[in-house]
Specification:
Length: 600
């Protein structure tokens, strides 16, 4: 193992009476690609700030290789300077490197820094960090406010850079693609896994199972000692005293375990009276702003109980489409018919309903008093807040003092308090830890109403969506059954021209290096393979259908177990072959389209 570039050793830190870290060790070697995983409030951002030298530990050491160049992208990075180019080069990067990095993230180096959107701020901060080419790069929730295409750009930049990278993120799909190591912040310490995030959850589950068994044994030991104390009062005093001390020590250990155990989220959602079967029917929608066309002849029908994901680059019109579908904004042409008895709950990504000066009590009970109607029943506002992991001492604190994850939980608490049969979530996953995301996913999976989900979180979409609506930002909108992965498979190349169409035209910038000469078209071998795959995929689909039809016979297993096993094996084999064929076909088809486009 190489010597670390940056490390924490035996670090301890208290936040008032609360001990945050108790002997944290963390080391980053050259070219590391690591995730720092933990619950909201565990102190992940504080660890990053400590590594950056912005927070000093109460005890322990921070080791830094002499001359180390460090980059740090904060959750809410400040953007200063007249233009984005000025900002991106202010940390020491050459201007042409800064401009090139900005353009890689579809930003105009000459754009003014005033009035940037959340996504533009995030992309500018990332561009500056990569342009500076640091030895160690710390990224705190880097995918927040990024659209799916910008996340893909970030993944490519991380793969290509020479920096050691430590990432705090809730985005499973992103972490699985870019990490080779995991640090788990839990119970005030950090554990290390020398494998990517794809292996993390199974590893963490095994550790938690071991700790649960240790807790069970501790409970049994307490029971035994308490029983002895109750029955052994006639024994010698010295022995009694030793037993008593042991019981006290066991109970203190138990109390410490309980203190470290985080309360469990118990959020739930009450469905209002059912809506009509049809929720929304939209026909030939057109919508434009100035010379920007967002919707061009789009039609859809959303039925009760469906889960519809809306995806696309920032600025493509996702939120506008949702508002048009819900009747909050009129289309320029076309029609929208809403179903009957719709009760809509909305979580807004801008968190505009949360005024910085309002307290948690005011946010949850805006009409005053200490009661809130939650899922149709009166409940004390503090008791309801506890279900979303808010402490009693936070109830009078201003919203501005909350972390991003806490603000998002507060919005969810407000929305889920209201009975609804249509739930609209606009970027609900920002700042939430993975355990909260898992619980939210379970709730939404069981929700009996209709869900409209605007999100960049590919894993979240794949787990929930029954259909995906994608916008490319210049009028083209398609709807595909299934989640993000299904959309990509069925619509290869849909976003191919989005970067040029959505991003502002760059001003003066260095020309990109000339690429190596590309062939004018697919090779004969690739063309032949593409045709073979075109013929093979329908045959595999027929094989799958035939096997599924045979297995649908309820009496097959009892009548002929061997035939049942053969059909099961044939189904699994055909499904695997079809998935592999589709992936290969997609790669070849995208290459063919790119070559045709390059020829003009």
């Amino acid at each position: 193992m190489a010597a670390p570039l940056l490390a924490l050793r035996g670090v301890r830190l208290a936040d008032g009476p609360r001990q945050m870290f108790d002997g944290v060790d963390l080391a980053l070697e050259p070219r590391a690609r690591a995730a720092l995983v933990g619950r909201n409030g565990a102190g992940k951002s504080t660890i990053l700030r400590m590594l950056a030298g912005l927070v000093q530990p109460d005890d322990g050491d921070r080791f830094v290789t002499p001359g180390l160049r460090l980059g740090f992208v904060l959750q809410e990075p400040p953007i200063e300077g007249a233009t984005l180019g000025d900002y991106a080069s202010a940390g020491g990067a050459a201007r042409h490197e800064a401009d090139a990095a900005l353009m890689a993230f579809d930003l105009d180096p000459g754009k003014a820094t005033a009035g940037l959107s959340g996504g533009e701020i995030r992309r500018a901060a990332l561009a500056r960090a990569f342009a500076e080419q640091p030895d160690v790069l710390l990224l705190d929730e880097p995918t927040n406010h990024l659209d799916i295409l910008a996340i893909a750009t970030l993944e490519a930049r991380i793969a290509a850079c020479r920096s050691a990278v430590l990432i705090v993120s809730h985005d499973r799909a992103f972490l699985e693609r870019v990490t080779q190591q995991c640090f788990w912040l839990e119970d005030r310490k950090v554990r290390r896994l020398d494998a990517g995030f794809g292996k993390f959850e199974d590893w963490a589950a095994k550790i938690q199972a071991q700790e649960a068994e240790e807790a069970r044994r501790l409970d049994k030991a307490i029971e035994r000692e308490a029983y002895w104390m109750a029955r052994g009062v006639t024994a010698r005093r010295a022995r009694n005293e030793g037993r008593r001390r042991k019981l006290i020590a066991l109970r203190q250990e138990k109390a410490e375990r309980l203190r470290l155990t985080r309360g469990e989220l118990s959020m739930s959602v009450k469905v209002a009276e059912p809506s009509g079967r049809r929720v929304v029917e939209a026909d030939k929608l057109f919508k434009a702003y100035g010379d920007r066309t967002l919707l061009k002849g789009f039609s859809t029908r959303i039925m009760a109980g469906e889960r519809v994901a809306v995806v696309g680059p920032n600025g493509a019109g996702k939120t506008t489409l949702v508002k048009v579908l819900l009747g909050e904004e009129a289309p320029d042409a076309g029609s929208v018919k809403l179903g009957v008895n719709l009760q809509i709950a909305y979580v807004d990504q801008a968190r505009a309903d949360l005024k910085p000066g309002m307290t948690l009590v005011e946010a949850l009970a805006p009409m005053g008093g200490d009661q809130i109607m939650a899922q149709g029943r009166p409940k004390h506002v503090a008791a309801y807040a506890r279900e979303f992991l808010f402490r009693d001492d936070q109830m009078r604190q201003p919203v501005s003092s909350l972390s991003g994850g806490e603000r998002n939980r507060l919005l969810l608490a407000r929305a889920l308090a209201m009975p609804s049969n249509v739930l609209v979530l606009d970027e609900p996953t920002n700042d939430l830890d993975m355990e909260t995301l898992d619980l939210l996913e379970d709730i939404l999976a069981d929700y009996e109403g209709t869900l409209i989900l605007v999100s960049h979180d590919r894993d979240f979409i794949d787990r929930l969506a029954t259909s995906t609506i994608a916008l490319d930002g210049h009028g083209r909108v398609v709807e595909t059954p299934g989640g993000w992965g299904d959309f990509l498979t069925q619509n290869p190349g849909f976003f191919a021209a989005v970067g040029a169409a959505v991003a502002p035209a760059p001003k003066k910038a260095p020309p990109p290096p000339r690429p190596a000469a590309e062939p004018a078209k697919l090779s004969f071998k690739d063309q032949h393979r593409l045709k073979t795959l075109d013929d093979l995929m329908p045959k595999l689909a027929k094989s799958i259908a035939a096997a599924e039809a045979a297995l649908a016979d309820p009496g097959l297993y009892a009548r002929d177990p061997a035939a049942f096993e053969r059909q099961s094996a044939a189904l699994a084999k055909a499904q695997a072959e079809l998935a592999a064929a589709e992936d290969e076909w997609l790669a070849l088809e995208e290459r063919r389209e790119a070559l045709e486009k390059a020829r003009g």
